[in-house]
Amino acid sequence: FLFPTICSRIGWLLLLLGAVYLVLVTTELLPEINVTVLSILPSDISITESGRGCYLIHNDISDELGTVTIMVGLLLIAFSAERDEDEFTDALRLRSWYLAGISYAVVYILCDLLIYEIAYLQYMWFVQGGLLILLYILIFKSKIHLSRRSSDGQ
How far is CA 148 from CA 83, 86, 90, 130, 142, in A? Predict the structure, then answer.
């Protein structure tokens, strides 16, 4: 299943808006959005304790808004049909997923071995924030671009 081609443009717009929003939030140019939210782990519990149930907590959701917007954008870009979708494009998609998966694993292992303490937590936030999908998009779009360029030159 692929989204319609127009969803790719919407995805790029969401990706840009989410990235700009996160930059503005992290530089504190925008105010915090503090609301009561549902949490599956309360903020005062350690990871080793066993918490059960859901909790209502008061939290700033600015970063969540930015990251969710970015992830939705990445998903729309990654899973939108190309204008000329065919078997060749399907093969490029599959090869791109393979390369993205291998690249992701290599980056993950290297960072696990070379990054420590709070910097590691920040890196893990980035990894969970869509590195695999981002790698796939970069590989797939570059392969599509190269394939169109070579077919135009012939």
Answer: 12, 13, 15, 27, 10
pTM for the predicted model, two decimal places: 0.79
Q: Is 138 helix (H, G, I), strand (E, B) or coil?
A: helix
Per-residue pLDDT 10s for the chain (154 aa) are: 899 999 999 999 999 999 999 999 989 898 888 888 888 766 655 555 555 667 788 888 888 899 899 999 999 999 999 988 899 999 999 999 999 989 888 888 888 888 887 777 777 766 766 888 999 999 999 999 998 888 776 6
Residues 2 and 85: beta-carbon distance below 8 Å: yes
Residue the block writes with tokens 């290297």: 110
CA pair distance 96, 37, nearest whole angstrom: 37
